[in-house]
Design goal:
GO molecular function, one term: acetate-CoA ligase activity
Bound molecules: ligand 6R9
Cofactor: Mg(2+)
Catalytic activity: acetate + ATP + CoA = acetyl-CoA + AMP + diphosphate
Low-confidence stretches: 1-10
EC number: 6.2.1.1
CATH topology of the largest domain: Rossmann fold
Keywords: Acetylation, ATP-binding, Ligase, Magnesium, Metal-binding, Nucleotide-binding
Number of helices: 20
Strand order of the largest sheet: 12-11-8-6-7-14-15-23
Shape: globular
Length: 649
């Protein structure tokens, strides 16, 4: 177990909420006392307050068969109705749901009434294509309104979406389509990134060529107008088809445990896990946390979460949380610095964004570009900042608060995972004294502990393993098609306590500090990548005999992928090491996606292994981070590190 402490443990700065903020804050301290008095009852109350139930539930939690939980089991609801129709029926149909901003500068304002109308038509279209409750639909789209419309249309008819991030390769898309047995793929001709159109339909075509699949149709949104290849009978234009369907659609109620989506995330083996979420519990906790952690005042706030809908943050805090709460939000298609380095700040100024939720990696890259860029824009509309995806170092926290937030507004650091569905650890603005670098406290109704490797609670300030000790409403319900892996990965280590895979410690105030992953999962720019997945990609190349991948600390991206590769004997001397290294970097990027592209590939003669043949990644990490090499006594061959170092340095 390698728990690395990369925080400044002497952090003593505290920021008390201003009296004005506290007075107007949505979250009140009695949330904590209510939840502590009756945790399950508290969630029942939240579910009733925040959601519309077609059939009210009488049972809140069933935990009689751990780790398989059900929440609100006999209740019925429609997720899309909760995100759309009920706001219109309540008289808020003219409120803007989405200020959409395309990268080239085109934009669209979409009201709740308009979004509801679009989703109704899309739901009819899905039904006409033979999609019904329980069927899987893969969504492979850029950040355009149709991404949100598609997700909600799938939810509206009780089907299950699997959104695949637009940066993933044909192989990654193919394996996700096959694993979920998707019936339909929704994509677009392409999208815009860094000032240029990039293709998506082409990737779908390549993915579907890899094998016979269950996909019957590919629905294509026109975004860039670039040429696309066409398979008659299979491919359909979104615009043509939507024009043919009925505008009216009644949202039918589904059971609270109706599956809502599958989202694939990296695990410790090469095969991504399809994390399964259901409806009532997921929506309750995303709505609750979105409202209380971001202090959402839906009538006046303009909220912006910069995550792509291809990640869990986009699911919970672009689509389901904000829309359930009737928020007005910004949706932006492109990159932060296109066409100008201050594009994000320009968007904040344009829409008077009041709540911004982004990732430390973005903040650190803005820090590198310098404060003179955001300072050219009027950011005074901001009143709350959020962070997610990886630990935020105190320096970045302070910079975020001062340079972006003007020095006096709350910054909340939110810890959670694809598996947890919604925020689990965070300060509540207006209540908690803020402490830069610490995610701080469990949200009301969530029970967190830190255990030693053998399951004993850690007392004092030592590091240990983060666990969730009680079931929570938005918890994953399983891994698609693999109940054993679900039990094994999360529940075997500590019985009926959920093992998160993160190291953590408490400080003397009891605040929680996250210390990074304890397994072979890397965190690059807030995205999870598995060392095993990249290693298998490298080994799949004809040059490679063996490969080891580590996540090395990186100033901007948090961690960066660094690979060590042994070339096959017959490949040695065929090209220079630089050429081989470049070829392999491109190969990984093509096979998995650009985010997996290694920062460095070192061609080495050997890899450090224990006597039992396990690669000692710890030593490679030392090397990749330019540190003294640690203890090498368990190596089978102690001279190995010397010969590797000669190559690397
Ligand atoms: C929401 C999301 C989950 C992993 C998680 C942890 C890291 C996320 C964090 C954080 C420290 C935070 N992580 N938020 N670490 N502080 N505020 O990112 O989900 O992509 O599944 O990643 O990200 O290591 O285990 P996901």
């Amino acid at each position: 177990m390698n728990v690395q402490i990369d925080h400044n443990l002497e952090e003593i700065r505290r920021f008390r909420p201003s009296p004005e903020f506290a007075a107007g804050a949505i979250a009140k301290p009695d949330l904590y006392t209510d939840a502590a008095a009756d945790r399950v009852g508290f969630w029942g109350e939240q579910a009733r307050d925040l959601l519309h139930w077609h059939t009210p539930f009488t049972k809140t939690l069933d935990w009689s068969n751990p780790p398989f939980a059900t929440w609100f089991e006999d209740g019925e609801l429609n997720v899309a109705y909760n995100c759309l129709d009920r706001h219109v029926l309540a008289g808020n149909g003219e409120r803007i749901a989405i200020h959409w901003e395309g990268e080239p500068g085109d934009s669209r304002d979409i009201t709740y009434a308009q979004l509801t109308a679009e989703v109704k038509k899309a739901a009819n279209l899905l039904t006409s294509l033979g999609v019904s409750a329980g069927d899987r639909v893969a969504i492979y789209l850029p950040m355009i309104p149709e991404a949100v419309v598609s997700m909600l249309a799938v939810a509206r008819i009780g089907a299950i979406h699997s959104v695949v991030f637009g940066g993933f390769s044909p192989d990654s898309l193919h394996s996700r389509i096959v694993d979920a047995e998707a019936k339909l793929v929704i994509t677009s001709d392409g999208g815009y990134r860094k000032g240029r159109p990039f293709p998506l339909k082409e990737t779908v075509d390549a993915a579907l060529e890899k094998s016979e699949t269950t996909v019957e149709h590919v629905l294509v949104v026109k975004r860039t107008g670039e040429d696309v290849a066409w398979t008659e009978g299979r491919d359909l234009w979104w615009d043509d088809e939507i024009a043919l369907v009925d505008a009216d659609h009644e949202a039918k109620a589904f059971p609270a445990e109706q599956p809502l989506f599958i989202l694939y995330t990296s695990g410790t083996t090469g095969k991504p896990k399809g994390i399964l979420h259901t409806s009532g519990g997921y929506l309750t906790q995303t709505a609750f946390t979105h409202r209380n952690v971001f202090d959402l005042h839906p009538e006046t706030d303009v909220y912006w979460c910069t995550a792509d809908v291809g990640w869990i943050t986009g699911h919970s805090y672009v689509v389901y949380g904000p829309l359930t709460n009737g928020a007005t939000q910004v949706l932006y298609e492109g990159t932060p610095d296109t066409p100008i380095p201050g594009r994000w700040w320009q968007i904040i100024e344009k829409y008077r964004v009041s709540i911004l939720y982004t990732a430390p990696t973005a903040i650190r890259s803005f820090m590198k570009m310098g404060r003179q860029i955001p300072q050219q824009f009027d950011l005074r509309s901001l009143r709350l900042l959020g962070s997610v995806g990886e630990p935020i170092n105190p320096e970045a926290w302070i910079w975020y608060r001062h340079v972006i937030g003007g020095g006096s507004i709350p910054v909340v650091d939110t810890w959670w995972q694809t598996e947890t569905g919604a925020i689990m650890i965070s300060a509540l603005p207006g209540i908690t004294d803020l402490k830069p670098g610490s995610a701080q406290v469990a949200i009301p109704g969530v029970s967190i502990d830190i255990l030693s490797d053998d399951g004993e609670p850690v007392t004092g300030t030592d590091g240990g393993l983060l666990v969730v000790t009680e079931p929570w409403p938005s918890m994953l319900r399983g891994i698609w098609g693999d109940p054993e892996r679900f039990t094994e990965t999360y529940w075997e280590k500590f019985g009926d306590k959920y093992f998160a895979g993160d190291g953590a410690r408490r400080d003397t105030d009891g605040d929680i500090w996250l210390l990074g992953r304890v397994d072979d999962v890397m965190n690059v720019s807030g995205h999870r990548l598995s060392t095993a997945e990249i290693e298998s990609s490298l080994v799949a190349h004809d040059l490679t005999a063996e490969a080891a991948v580590v996540g090395a600390a990186d100033e901007t991206t948090g961690q960066a992928v660094v690979a060590f590769v042994i070339l096959k004997e017959r490949q040695q001397g065929v090209m220079t090491n630089e050429e081989a290294s470049e070829l392999l970097r491109t190969h990984v990027s093509k096979q998995i996606g650009a985010i997996a592209r290694p920062r460095q590939v070192f061609i080495v003669p050997e890899l450090p292994k224990t006597r039992s043949g396990k690669i000692m990644r710890r030593l490679l990490r030392d090397l990749a981070e330019g540190r003294e090499i640690g203890d090498t006594t368990t190596l089978a061959e102690t001279s190995v590190m010397t010969s590797i170092m000669e190559q690397v340095r």
